[in-house]
Amino acid sequence: MRRARVLALAGCLALSACGARSAPGPAPLVLERSIALAGVSGRIDHLAIDPAGRRLFVAELGNGSVEAIDLATGRSLGRIGGLHEPQGLGYLAGRDELVVATGGDGMLRFYRASDLALIGAVKLGQDADDVRVDPQSGRVLVGYGSALAVVDAGTRGLVRSIPLQAHPEGFEVEGGRAFVNLPQAGGLVVVDLAQGREAARWRNPGPHFNFPLALDPDAGLVAAVYRMPAKLVLFSAASGAVKQKLDTCGDADDVFFDRDKKRLYVVCGGGSVDVFSKGRAGYAAMARVSTRRGARTGLFSSQLDRLYVAVRASGNQSAAIWALRPR
Question: Would you give the distance in Å from CA 284 to the centre of its chain?
Fold first, then answer.
């Protein structure tokens, strides 16, 4: 029965059926495999990946756990239990460590990725949420409360806490700057990490509740996705000027640039992934691929060329990670 269900899903995605909108031609995403998350119920939050080791880490918020998945075999490598609302994850490749932010107790914990053993922790504050690793400094950045924490990965100590106007949601780090969504403050901010302060504020261009954010530093673009109404907005990373505003799917919680294929993927809890392609005039809607209602988080790996979508349990369907292959 499981094989039949996966094949049906693959056919649905490959044909861009199931209520999807699509331009003529092959679907841009094909379901390669569905990896079951045994015993997982409720909301699934963010993901992190070790592309070299082909390991995916999943924040199973509703279960109070984080699970490591072997992407080569689809098997579980172990699970960290007893966590209070695990939300943000980050993988430290040079140290082979996993960092986990838990919103329920405001902690950032460090684990050995090889065996998921706890090796350190930092107390941050209320609602420790999204996590990013600064590619320039190697430091760990965590959104919590109304601040952005900067944590030294080596000492596992708090370097500084940068105050913000409101709770930070999706953010990205590049070139000593952090681009941060502040939905409750009605916009975005650019944070100078060296000086530890806001360098610029961008007001929302009409829509509200901007949660996911992605960055294409080569093109100088920041993508933010809004929920009311559902809009994808592209900003100039240099000035904050709005470059494009496009309709998209509802209840988005993750967005990713696929720079090799010149695409954008918007992952939505409404039950779909919207694919946008870049042309001479900018980005345009390419296809809407159906997933499952509540599947609002994911991760795109350029190294593995896969979009992983976290699919919640529903009825007699178990929770799973869908590996979608772009084409």
Answer: 22
